[in-house]
Specification:
mainly beta; 6-stranded antiparallel beta barrel; single chain; 6 strands
Length: 99
């Protein structure tokens, strides 16, 4: 496995604007880690999500991420985490495109 793709873990702070009545989201923290990123196979997509064809990726990290984050960015595309597993000092993240 080559850990060569930058994965950006982003923490967002939401605050309420009384004037507009909307919530504004502001990035408070970005952490970049190298990871092995692959497309999630069709069998695994069917098991995890119940369907095939959603843009899912599998991210493998050498050392676990110990920080709190809201979403992650890989190759300029925002992803949300569906499953995060830590075992034997490594971590696997199953993620789908953030809509």
């Amino acid at each position: 496995m080559r850990f060569e793709i930058n994965v950006i873990f982003v923490k967002v702070e939401k605050s309420y604007n009384r004037i507009t009545g909307d919530y504004s989201m502001e990035e408070t923290d970005r952490t970049v880690r190298l990871a092995d990123v692959t497309d999630t196979g069709m069998e695994r997509q069917q098991l995890l999500y119940g369907t095939v064809g959603n843009q899912a990726i599998t991210i493998r990290l050498k050392t676990p991420v110990q920080l709190d984050f809201d979403y992650l960015i890989v190759n300029g595309i925002k992803y949300t985490v569906r499953k995060l597993v830590t075992y034997r000092g490594r971590q696997t993240i199953e993620a789908v495109v953030l809509k």
